[in-house]
Amino acid sequence: MSSPSYRALGRSGLSIAPLVFGANVFGWSVKEPAEVAALLDAFVDGGFNMIDTADMYSSWVPGNQGGESEALIGQWLKQRGGKRDQVLIATKVGKWAERPGLSPDNIEAAVDASLQRLGIDTIDLYQAHEDDPSIPLEATLGALARLVEKGKVRAIGASNYQARRLADALGASGTQALPRYESLQPEYNLYDRAGYEAELEPLVQREGLGVISYYSLASGFLSGKYRTDADAGKSGARGEQVVQRYLNPRGQRILAALDQVAAAQSASPAQVALAWLIARPSVTAPIVSATTPAQLREILGAARLRLSEADIAALDDASAP
């Protein structure tokens, strides 16, 4: 099977495959180092290269403190030796209760802790996990610039920024001669379109930023897993939340369109939903997660799926915000 074509991530100098592995599952639904290794081996062996994590993953799990995901990735990198040259590591700072916010002091301490857990010398993409209005943008960007100068970070990105603040940050980088955010990580999928498309998408296209979108399958809804109220029981409290949020007339229209395109393409609804994102000109690579190698390999098939203009139009129409 051929490897997927890589794409430039903004002007960062990083090239990534069209799907990114979301390591938020490590330390949560995937806890054993052997399970982590099986997933990451399958991901890299499939020709994919960016792993996305954060210092706070997975602090929400009872008994966890945070940092578990980075530590598990670090164990895998140590075990696999040469695999470091085959992957790009993206992590984040600012949202963890242990190291909150984007002050220069917090960023400096957080990056060193992340590097230690990951067991690496340089983070390929270091992202502000969320905006911190209490800190001047110039101060945050200045701190990130020093990390680039020291070789601790190759490129920087933003996650969960509103368009105005992202534009202000890009402006500050230009006027202060500081490194700029080269990527954005927004919530975006076939159901959740309006928030990204209204203001963020025109901005990232105008400024040439890369985009790695999260919640690419709308918490599993776009896989077709939840089709009736009774399906909420498949995932406990999370399933109930998904059904309440997405299982409505518009959600049903989207599922019907996914089913139609999937049947025509001999693909799964999840593959089609991801292929729609990959085909979006502004999106560099959606983030995907899996808990078994078999599930992961099925999802990665989306990178080789080519939707027709008619397929995309049908999905656009069914999901119109």
Would you write up a description of this structure?
By secondary structure, the chain is of the alpha/beta class. Helices cover 44% and strands 13% of the residues. The chain has a domain at 7-185: TIM Barrel, CATH 3.20.20.100. It has helices at residues 33-45, 68-80, 104-118, 137-149, 163-176, 194-207, 236-246, 249-265, 269-279, 293-300, 309-319, and strands at 7-8, 15-16, 20-22, 50-52, 88-93, 95-96, 99-100, 123-128, 153-159, 181-185, 210-211, 287-288. The strands form three sheets. It has an eight-stranded parallel sheet with strand order 11-10-9-8-5-4-3-12, covered by helices on one side.
Instruction: Give the rounded overall mean pLDDT.
Output: 95
Q: Helical element count?
A: 11
Compute the number of strand runs: 12
Characterize the quaternary organization of these chains. Answer: single chain
Write a brief structural summary.
With 321 residues, the chain is an alpha/beta fold. It has helices at 33-45, 68-80, 104-118, 137-149, 163-176, 194-207, 236-246, 249-265, 269-279, 293-300, 309-319, and strands at 7-8, 15-16, 20-22, 50-52, 88-93, 95-96, 99-100, 123-128, 153-159, 181-185, 210-211, 287-288. Helix 1 (33-45) packs parallel to helix 10.
